[in-house]
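Hi Y.,

Following your request, here is the sequence exactly as I used it, all 209 residues.
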Amino acid sequence: MLTKGILFVVLFMTLLSNSEVSDSLSEVSNLPPATTILTEEEFKVQNKAKNITIQIGDTRAEVEQQLGKHVDYYYHTNVYQYKGMWIHYKEGIVDGIVIDDAAANSKKYKTPSGIGYGSTIQEVIQQYGKKAFIDSNQRKVRTITYLMERDKQGNYSVITSFDKFVLEGGYENLMILSMVLDQQSRVSFLMIADYEFAYHPEHRWTETQ
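Below is the corresponding structure, written out as tokens. Let me know if you'd prefer a different format.
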């Protein structure tokens, strides 16, 4: 039987490898274009009622000052479960945040754009745009992934190709925002991560509790 840690890897790789570029699904085709220039401030989740903010780049000490000690740990993916989310660290720094219904209080966390567990596909597209890697089944969105590139000014733009990075490098300038949607086209899984953790989680199994 697979452990939860292995299931994380399976979910990540399924989410991020079985996608197609599409912006023509009926659910989103009539929506107006969104502003797709973002800053690093977008790569975080917030529970405003509790005054909690966890973002990429936080230290483990900063996370646990707000969330307390982790309640579970999954060796195979080196992912820590807290109340409300799952977090991965690289050398003590947050490089991956996951929100899903398996973590208590997860529904209370949103990105600065207001997207979180339970958000609709229309709300996602309105905030982040149609330029995404979208996997659909019978015209219903199953997963949607935004690939974002940082420019010299520190701003992020949504892009739809890896080609130039394969040739030139530059993966350290990429951030990933990925979501799985349920049968009602609502977000049931959200991941904010840097490129390496999102696409190569097996490279991050080096830390210990």
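The chain has five helices and 13 strands.

Thanks again,
Q.
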